[in-house]
Here is the input.
Amino acid sequence: MSSENPYILEMQNISKSFPGVKALKDVSFRLKPGTVHALMGENGAGKSTLMKCLFGIYMKENGEIHLNGEPANFKNSREALEHGVSMIHQELNVVPDQTVMENIWLGREFTRRIGPFHLVNHRKMAEETRQLMKQLEMEIEPEGRMGSISISHQQACEIAKAVSYNASVVVMDEPTSSLSDKEVNHLFKIIRSLREQNVAIIYISHKMSEIFQIADEISVMRDGELITTAPASELDEDKLINLMVGRDMSQRFPIVEAVPGESVMQVKNLTSSDPKSFKNVSFDLRRGEILGIGGLVGAQRTELVESIFGLRATVEGTVSIEGQDAGIQTAKDAIHCGMGLITEDRRGAGIFPQLNIIENTSMPSLDRLTNKVGLLDHKTLIQKSTEMNEKFKTKTPTMETKIRSLSGGNQQKVIVARWMMTLPEILIMDEPTRGIDVGAKYEIYCIMAELAAAGKSIIMVSSEMPELIGMSHRIMVLCDGRKTGELEGEERTQENIMRLAARFGHDDFKEEEAS
Ligand SMILES: Nc1ncnc2c1ncn2[C@@H]1O[C@H](COP(=O)(O)OP(=O)(O)OP(=O)(O)O)[C@@H](O)[C@H]1O
Ligand SMILES: [Mg+2]
Here is the structure.
């Protein structure tokens, strides 16, 4: 590191507009080598946009970027990569039909020459991938099809890919959104070892606890401006939240006033048709109740709720609504029974990128808003969609804006708005606040509390323990596809959830017991 320039990356007075939004206003950001620099801010603050300007995905309108003291105005991501800047994108960029190794080495495949031909050297590619996985202590088969591995493994592949460029700056835009705690710890190990090799890491996450574990410095963005940069040691969660939202947020969860009433849904001995998935799960859901489902990644919570919703097949057991077997075979049946499901995989299954916000919000409500002669009530549809999105403070220039141009977290708000608009009696939410900032999380919690108070029932799958404890009347825990217990009242503690989540000779648990 030369004495006159302590920064590996300097971005000065960067501005960027989109139709109707000034996404970046004169942003200046500096990065020191060998540090982890967290970039924080509410949904739509401009974090991803700033990084995309660095990476040459967006053209900045103003400003200068210097890398190692040299001007660095990359025109595309290839140029950025060639100059040692790599990025893990918020939206997973995988090609599902290709293998893991093809995804990792995409665009820089190893070739061998046979006469005049250059052929892809699969053997070498597999070997290099194996080497990379070994170095990162990841257990992922190079020749597996990307589309057939779990989202958490896909995310791990993206991490491996970013590392494989031997970059001096690595941008991680919400790299842990689909990782288990164990995988997050593993990623942190990788990050620390990169830091030791003097790599600088820009780390974007909404998970407060992660930030204080890993960051050396923290920059906060709000409404397209960079508000402050400070050493992590000078900030704490409350100060940081205050900077991000511009107000005090002493209250993280609203008070859930609803008192659960009679049982509205009965799940009995439900068993997946996939022998590796859940078995023999029984539980009741009561009117006005928020039932949390906890467990580790891989506990089959998503599989369970998707099966209840008719998206997956079961071989045994019943789902009854008010005592009657509901006979749900498809999602349409489930919607007919008054259920709504906010899926975990919002990008794959959730959004219609080409459609605007009104269309995305109203999709499953179209039936309800069509009159007897088959005419759609457009006025009500626009009004209701707009109201719902205003309630969530979805940040968008207009309601006609295509959903794909919203920030990641704002896309999620639209999906939540969509299911709220169907007025479900039973709302299933799978990781409802993943990728959503603290302010918007609070909005979602308030709406959950309101729904419960109005006699609706909610099932919430969540990996965030404070959220499970803060919002649920009762928490059911799964481990390896089995129900390991239910926690109520005072029993709802992090320790109890962890204990139940790691039962059944789970690998993590064995390790702990052994040590
Ligand atoms: N391609 C685009 N077209 C139009 N507007 C865009 C585009 N990309 C981003 N924006 C807008 O720019 C603003 C900043 O978005 P950005 O994605 O940078 O937010 P973010 O801080 O990464 O938020 P999140 O935490 O939700 O990911 C938002 O208002 C967003 O709607
Ligand atoms: Mg973003």
